[in-house]
Queue: 4 jobs
Job 1
Amino acid sequence: EVQLVQSGAEVKKPGESLKISCKGSGYNFSNYYIGWVRQMPGRGLEWMGIIYPGDPDARYSPSFQGHVTISVDKSITTAYLQWSSLKASDTATYFCVREYSQAFDVWGQGTMLSVFS
Amino acid sequence: SSELTQDPAVSVALGQTVRITCQGDSLRIFYESWYQQKPGQAPVLVIYGKNNRPSGIPDRFSGSSSGNTASLTITGAQAEDEADYYCSSRDSSGSHHVFGTGTKVTVL
């Protein structure tokens, strides 16, 4: 079964750092782009950025450039999304996605992040 | 701000047909995809490319596009189709993806 399995929910304080993960299985991980999508509480979907496992350089939405870092370790078929200094406004659910034919055909279950002091 | 615009909400009687639209300049160049999201769940891809349905998606879901407008049609809506629907495509630069503003579909 093709799937993306994300790390669990997180509760953090403003200013803290965080790295969440997304492990792919059931397919050739190296052959597909992996992206990240944000959904703030009660709001719509926002595309954050994407990375190709064979290329260390990610592409970011202008809205997220400089605020997050996307990386990948293809040896363990895992993609990451990280923050160096969290803000309360980062509170959201984050989904990883597999890109296929310009669409996102496989979604992780989501990682809920709460940031408050 | 999103470059793909959708109506916030539509309603449809059980068994009837509903069309959800998505407008944006990038749709003149790039294919759109459509996602269904039910409360508390991850979105699910329902249409991609030129009206392609992933395995397991009922054939009552179909997609079309003309000019700067893409449409998702549900023919014979079922109670389980009540959900939020999002379109997505590349942005005008082609370098990034973007999601539409989302449409809440209510089945009456």
Job 2
Amino acid sequence: DAGVTQSPTHLIKTRGQQVTLRCSPKSGHDTVSWYQQALGQGPQFIFQYYEEEERQRGNFPDRFSGHQFPNYSSELNVNALLLGDSALYLCASSPGWGSSEQYFGPGTRLTVT
Amino acid sequence: KNEVEQSPQNLTAQEGEFITINCSYSVGISALHWLQQHPGGGIVSLFMLSSGKKKHGRLIATINIQEKHSSLHITASHPRDSAVYICAADTGNQFYFGTGTSLTVIP
């Protein structure tokens, strides 16, 4: 049983560009959350998707958007990249809306130059 | 002020020592999580607790709901325990994370 998978593993982009990160949840999970973890910091909640809708959102600008597909996989899109967007982006899946269980993926390391 | 505070920020221990990492939170929670993050980023969930105490191998997690405080203990520490340990408060709507405690266990 595959756990949470994310792609790509590493990514280098230039300031002003756009990026799309992908996440496949653990089998049987239908809720996906995205987090940004800057170097030396704890993860910060970006948003959570359930039933293909954004259900909760943290304190992130509209440049951060997402999508959830019918197979529960999810994408995180970031537009107009800033140097400060360089971070590890973590995806976590849960077995149902409101569940406290979270299984984390390995993360995507984004570097903006 | 952060919703979740951890201490210490960094910890170095000799192999075999008993280790305690503390977490205080200011939000109402449905559960408190302890996570382990190894270099490279992968996060593993160690414990999810809403009351009392849980034990898994050499790891013990406790929580005091009234005091809004949780501790993670590692008995007989080993170099392979070296990692960042993160406390996360689950309010039922979202997670708030501490900044982590970086643990290094020296052989």
Job 3
Amino acid sequence: GENVGLHLPTLSVQEGDNSIINCAYSNSASDYFIWYKQESGKGPQFIIDIRSNMDKRQGQRVTVLLNKTVKHLSLQIAATQPGDSAVYFCAESTGGGSNYKLTFGKGTLLTVNP
Amino acid sequence: GAGVSQTPSNKVTEKGKYVELRCDPISGHTALYWYRQSLGQGPEFLIYFQGTGAADDSGLPNDRFFAVRPEGSVSTLKIQRTERGDSAVYLCASSLMPGGIYTDTQYFGPGTRLTVL
């Protein structure tokens, strides 16, 4: 049978375009969110984080938007480059002393075409 | 500076054997985490150390899995009587401060790919 676990959501963009990667989280009690980038054969690499008391945070070429009403998180990458090609994971954690336990989403495969 | 390192990078073993996976966290990081990542999935939490003690081992799948961090730095994940379903990438992460009111960024190592034949 088909292994649906291998079928990641995918996004294909042209070099120089902006990319938007979306994530729906499940726990309304989550108050800390992180985006990680994972290249093939490597561990996840921290990109940017946001706390639940914010709805937008910007980094270098990246912006994270948080919509708590619909439990939605997005990562925007400006002027996407071939080196941005990777799997992107959103992760969430809850407060109350449990911020160490990250719950990861399934991941989105971003492919940047030169 | 040096990041989180993990050894070996690849481990192939036979069903029923015992394996040890090692993690060297970033120097000075007091918190250490183990995750497991199956093909096509995101990492799943296994265990968290604050210093030498396991503060939360709720993610360990069963009693064949055990982890130690005797001196509060290097950690070893131990798997007894390995099964084919244990095949995955085992990731280690560390953070400067323990989790709590102020979450600190978890930095991941490259992982150990475990294959159980």
Job 4
Amino acid sequence: AQKVTQAQTEISVVEKEDVTLDCVYETRDTTYYLFWYKQPPSGELVFLIRRNSFDEQNEISGRYSWNFQKSTSSFNFTITASQVVDSAVYFCALSEARTGANNLFFGTGTRLTVIP
Amino acid sequence: GAVVSQHPSRVICKSGTSVKIECRSLDFQATTMFWYRQFPKQSLMLMATSNEGSKATYEQGVEKDKFLINHASLTLSTLTVTSAHPEDSSFYICSPYRGRNTEAFFGQGTRLTVV
């Protein structure tokens, strides 16, 4: 069965600090997809990244970067030079090819608060 | 990204009444729709999967007679919470399936409060 663990329930940082959100996953499937979503107070889910299991390259997008390591089943997300607008709940999610690839299993989320 | 329209965004209803939530995929046809539920300060959990023209598949612990799903067309799926109770108060969000090699798209969500 699949499982996504976000051990950090809440994190607070001061603006301009870097912060890393951890995500550890479990799956028996060899083909799977990992996602990160941002959920601001309004509730909508903002897509950040999708990575398939065969692509272990790290990715950087502006102040965001992701470190995918299959050896440790982790897909960590780092925000550099954090800003107040980054305050939100961040979800890591997993989907497995055998279940259709877009049925997502979410972690419990990490609430990030950036203090001005 | 795909355009998904979900409404209402917020609804308050009395206990015992029914509430219908609509989810439309505006720029693509969705043969499959996922419905998720998120209780306050919790994660999103898949409730059910609907396929156009057939019965929905419900996850364990989700009452199919309480959460009626209709996926009558490729662009519209509805979730009706019947005989709502305060414990049904939650954030409901839809996700139409666009294809294996795409991100998952979500509606804006519906915050239901049953009083």
